[in-house]
Amino acid sequence: MKKLIDCRVHKLLLISMIVVPAIPLLLAMFIGYYSYSKTTEKLVVSAIRQSAIDHRDIISAFLKERQTDLQSYLNLIPADHLQWGMDHGDIALMFKNAGGVFQDLGLIAPDGVQISYSGAYELTEKNYLDAPWYQDTIKNGYHVSDVFLGYRNVPHFVVAVTRIIDGKPWVLRGTINSDIFRKLVDGVKLGDTGEAYIVSQDGKFQTARRSGGGLLENDLFNYPYQKKNIITFLGNDDGVDYLLASALMNDGKWRLIVRQKRADAFRSTNIAGYTILLVLLCGGAVIVVLALFTSRKIYETLERQAEAVCTLENQLMRAARLAELGEMSAGFAHEINNPLQIMKSDLALLELVLEDALPSNCEPAVRDEVKDISDQLKLQIDRCAGITREILNFGRSSKPELQKIDLSVYLPGVGAMVEKKATVHGVEMGCEISPETPQIEADPRQLQQVMVNLLNNAIYAVIDRHGSEGGKVKVDATLGADGSAVIKVADNGTGISPDNLTKIFVPFFSTKAPGQGTGLGLSVCHTIISTLGGDLAVESVKNEGTVFTITLPGLKTNS
């Protein structure tokens, strides 16, 4: 059940860490792409629209110039010369000034007969009276025709103008050079697929289309109805989507079409879309990887904290049991101490009785044996009393009583308290006190608690490494550089790893196996030494040994 809950917690963390940053990222990308695509669409449509307008104006200006050229030429010919036609000098001058724009020129009399012609075809004396372009020219004073075959049976279109003399119309018409006009119309540059062409209102090509479509062929594309001078729209031609602009010209008889493949026109938008998709994929991958890594770390941290809390609770329970055990030990010591006092009193009474009961002529050996037994009983009773007294003192909570302590006397006494334990486990104990070691002022019981704890830890570490042979524990006391007393407890035990060395004085931290230590001993020792104005430090090398150094202020001697 716990594993199932832990798995759910991990999944919830992972999903939260993916979804929370992913939502704003997706929103930002979507809004950014939408705004960019709309802006780009407007710019692209505006660009093709403006291109169509500009190109229409250029073509219209070109045709207007041709109309003006023809009108100027016609007006410059003297009226009395028209009936005789144009001479070769006039025609040569007109071709020269036009710069090759006209393929041929023709002067048509009021009866519709072309009386003068200069060009590659035999068109002199041809009658154009019934030709639609001729009739429109007479009607409007000028005309730009659709492309037609005419007498020459070749696709071409003409620009024609009129001059009224004596109420009769004379017409000068010029055939526009198809190559020059096609290059002019096809001069649009839009991306890789942009092209321009002209179609008539009945859907016939007036210029060849680069992507296919010759002069006078029917354009099968279905163009929308157009009232405005310029429109833009999307269309599909042979399965290809196009962006198109249509501009009316030549008095509405022609449509200038500028078109570009939609994929080409919106290439930047597509690139932006692919870039955003790539960023989303990369960003999503980074988010997922970071979420996996971070959620695992957070989960492991929470798991460690939960374990630490559980361990702390267990340690607190052990500490509470130890406190109860201490109180019980003090009670036991008190109860044991009462019979010991009675035994001591009865032993003194027994000595008096035996002194009176023994005959005066009793053998000295018997008397000495009785005295030895009595002395041994006294010794053991005093020993038991001392043990119970130490238990009571150790368990008693009282204010520190600072006393002058001579370490040369005090430390060997403390060492004797654990020497029996060390000897049983084959640990060699040593104590070396420098004569220069100053006296200190401390609470003997508290200092004893510190020393016993350090010595017990040292013995435990030595036994753990060496077993019953080769273990050494040594206590040294010397004079410090600043007049302080320096006490060192050194062992050649298992040592402490560098990671644990920084946590050695943390409450409830223990390097011992579970159930073999509370983790409070060194923390309490550090607190006691600090309250005495000293310092407790540790140096250790793994599998070589450990040295605990106690530094306490020394008492100055009166000289």
UniProtKB/TrEMBL annotation:
It is found in: Cell membrane. GO terms for cellular component: plasma membrane. GO terms for molecular function: ATP binding; phosphorelay sensor kinase activity. Residues 331-556 form the Histidine kinase domain. The keyword Transferase applies. SUPFAM superfamilies: ATPase domain of HSP90 chaperone/DNA topoisomerase II/histidine kinase, Homodimeric domain of signal transducing histidine kinase. The lineage of its organism: Bacteria, Pseudomonadati, Thermodesulfobacteriota, Desulfovibrionia, Desulfovibrionales. It is an enzyme of class 2 (transferase). It is a multi-pass membrane protein. The chain crosses the membrane at residues 12-36, 271-294. It comes from Desulfovibrio gilichinskyi. It comes from the Bacteria. This is histidine kinase. Its EC number is 2.7.13.3. Keywords: ATP-binding, Cell membrane, Kinase, Membrane, Nucleotide-binding, Phosphoprotein, Transferase, Transmembrane, Transmembrane helix, Two-component regulatory system. It catalyses: ATP + protein L-histidine = ADP + protein N-phospho-L-histidine.
